[in-house]
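User: Here's a chain of 279 residues. Predict its fold as tokens.
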Amino acid sequence: MGRRTMDAESFLEFASQVTKWKMYPYFDVAHSVLCALHVRDDLGPGALAFSRKHPISCWLSTMLVVFAGGMLSAALLGEPPLAPLKNTQQLVIASAVWYLVFYTPFDIGYSIAKFLPVKLVFSVMKEIYRCKKVHDGVLHAAKLYPNAYIIMILIGTLKGNGASFTKIIERLLRGVWTPTSIETLQPSFTTKACIIASVVFVLDIKSDLISAPHAFVYVFVIGFFIYFKVFSSMILGIHEPMLPFENLICAIFFGGIFDYTTKAFKSTKDDKADTKKKD
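Assistant: Prediction complete.
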């Protein structure tokens, strides 16, 4: 019994330390690397040619991906949208990473960043970084709007995955217009995960429904992100783990059963009509 108590206390102490981890500079580097990789992979086979011909456009689109969450949430909360760029250290890190991914000799920077063990480490770090962003977004919104739970969830989601919501603008900066890439049309699993994490943090901060210590909830959300975003997606290849639940919810609450019933009834009615005609 005493050993279990000691284990629980040790874990709680570890969880408390995790909540205090500084994101600068290592987690900022991991975040910037994966953002630059996203831009380069989105450019496709012509990425290098584009980066040589349009370096400013390439840099701008990468910076937008890196700072999208902060810029979007700031704009919605009535703060200067460019405020995230005032952090010169983060801007220098993001620019240096962008340069290494696109312009190193023999493409060494890109090759190292894409090397699976390196990418796995950066991905784990990014999910810890994402949890921090979601948590800070919910807290910031809660201070400004103490009873506006939807705003807290919205800002937490945008802080955690703002790049998906600015994808249409980021591509437009590179001369590509893709109006169907709006995140609200086909939300990615990352967005759904950020919504879930935001709801958990709101319940933890603003209600008594979660009795666990705050540090434990924080580490639980980190584990949730790492398991589904890194282990499940990169290792097992499961990119939409929530799809079965979404299909069930849509069938029950968003007209799926009624549409199926109506279709089946209409099909039966048409079959009977065809049978009468043949008779």
